[in-house]
Amino acid sequence: MTPMPERLNAARFALGGRLLDLLFPPRCVNCKQVGGAFCPQCFGSIQFIQPPFCPRCSHWLVSANAPCPACRAQPRLITRVRAAAWHEGAIRQAIHALKYNRRRDVAAPLATLLAPLCLNTESKPDLLTSVPLHPERQRERGYNQAEELAKQTARRSGGTYARLLERTRATADQIGLNAQERHANVRDAFRVNASIQLQGKQIVLIDDVYTTGATLDACAAALFARGASAVYGVTVARPR
């Protein structure tokens, strides 16, 4: 049973949240309409990634039988990557709001896009985890947006979230780097806590945007080093 002081604090927090919603009602991150993080119209405008796409990295293909140019150019360590939607329009605004505008309420609707992809694996995954931020970056932001997405996704998919990874060093921003530079930037930048054993486990690794796959591959390398049998990357979006 939850101790009485903690229950009272939780009730006060919930009441404070309701009062704030009355005074400053949440607005859609895209069109700013009052009512919630995502209004139905903007949520309905999301451009989902449809076949044909590469079964390994979700890169759009001209036909289902076409070889994937992205996988040929950059061999991947991660087992498979799926992205839910194209990184444009309302989705782009939502991810930006979650990362930079402290709109943590956006994580819940975005998780409804991720949950089905987490279940579309070889078998039910053992654990869901997220790409970590460096501690300094997380202190600046106040939270890790990928972790917010992963926790919400675990609730909606019936999975178990675990914080498995940590960054061993700060890395430069990936924006503006080419694929080769991105891979070099994050190589050996992640590790799994030595007390965690992942022998034979299938892991779903969640992040917000998938671009070249460099960060997901670097995280997968650390998870495989601790015994994971498969690592499935799942992201909200990727660029066309």
Structure, described:
The chain is an alpha/beta fold and 240 residues long. The chain has one domain (26-238): Rossmann fold (3-Layer(aba) Sandwich), CATH 3.40.50.2020. 40% of the residues lie in helices and 14% in strands. It has helices at 4-23, 40-44, 69-73, 89-100, 107-119, 135-141, 145-157, 179-186, 214-225, and strands at 80-86, 127-130, 165-167, 190-192, 202-209, 230-238. The strands form two sheets. It has a four-stranded parallel β-sheet. The radius of gyration is 19 Å and the shape is globular. 35% of the residues are buried.
Short description:
By secondary structure, the chain is an alpha/beta fold. The chain has nine helices and six strands, in the order H-H-H-E-H-H-E-H-H-E-H-E-E-H-E. The N terminus is likely disordered.
What does the secondary structure layout of this molecule look like, with pairings?
Elements: H1 4-23, H2 40-44, H3 69-73, E1 80-86, H4 89-100, H5 107-119, E2 127-130, H6 135-141, H7 145-157, E3 165-167, H8 179-186, E4 190-192, E5 202-209, H9 214-225, E6 230-238
Parallel strand pairs: 1-6, 2-5, 5-6
Antiparallel strand pairs: 3-4
Helix pairs in contact: 5-7, 8-9
